[in-house]
Amino acid sequence: MSDDPLKSRLELARAIAVEAGRVTLKYFRSRELAVQRKEDGSPLTIADQEAETLLRRRIGETFPDDAIVGEEYGEQSGTSGYCWVLDPIDGTKSFVTGVPLYGTMVGVMQGQEAVIGSIWFPGLDEGMYAATGFGAWYFSGQAEPVRSSIVGQREPGGGVLLTTCDQTLARRLGHEAWLRLGAEYGVCRTWGDVYGYMLVATGRAHVMLDPIMNVWDAAAVMPIILEAGGKFTDWHGFPRVDGGDSVATGGPWHDDVLAILASGNVQT
To answer: Distance between CA atoms of 17 and 89, rounded to whole angstroms?
Structure first.
């Protein structure tokens, strides 16, 4: 493992995202999979729990002084200044319905800055990783560098806009602003959760928009989008992972999206 503290954590993040993702495959499309409900109504399975347990164990073995925050098992303090942010299955609703657009997410924060992201999509056998200053990389077999600008400039009324749930977005944004967004982009799809952010980072979509975002949903995504040359902010335009919402774009049209969001009747 590298002596560089950032690179060594990136190496581990890359490895354990795949390891934990393989745990989820044991339960993917299983007819016997039991689904519980959390207090917020979101689904929880043994696959989520086992995958996060593995992630925490592997981090503790290598970086015992690092803090950990995970969706399923909360916070664990540390003294190193680094904090791992874990989402063992982002897109659990896709997972429990047998749809492969879910990902295992491993992020690393240094202070308040998201500096490492590693994501693997077990049902698709593809993933991405990035660290500040190291670029963004896509892999399905061999890893290759990626840029969010592959799709280039969009024409008015063209382009691809993604969100996780259009009903939730419309409720929070307001009907008129939602229609304006729809008119700005020729294709609107709910290829959402972390899969949507990968499509932006690899240049296959222009915008990914989420009205509800937790830190474990965002910490791995932000460095990947930024290192791919895109932009990632909350709805107010602040580059942060704890803002409660998010917008990721290939870059040039980010301000346009923020302007439409600002015009909406945003509900908190």
So the answer is: 10
Rounded Cα distance between 220 and 141, Å, is 21
Phi, psi of 7 (to 5 degrees): -65, -40
* pLDDT tens readout for residues 192-247: 999 999 999 999 999 999 999 999 999 999 999 999 999 999 999 999 999 999 99
Give the confidence band of 17 by pLDDT, cuts at 50, 70, 90.
very high
Beta-bridge partners for 87: 105
User: Which residue is listed with tokens 């840029």?
Assistant: 147
Residue 183 is which amino acid? A
Strand 43-44, strand 36-37: pairing: antiparallel
Q: How far apart are CA 215 and CA 255, in angstroms?
A: 23
pLDDT, tens digit, for every residue of 135-194?
Answer: 999 999 889 998 776 545 666 667 899 999 999 999 999 888 988 888 888 899 999 999
Tokens 């989402």 belong to which residue? Answer: 87
Structure tokens at 179: 């229609």
Are the CB atoms for 33 and 27 separated by under 8 Å?
Answer: yes
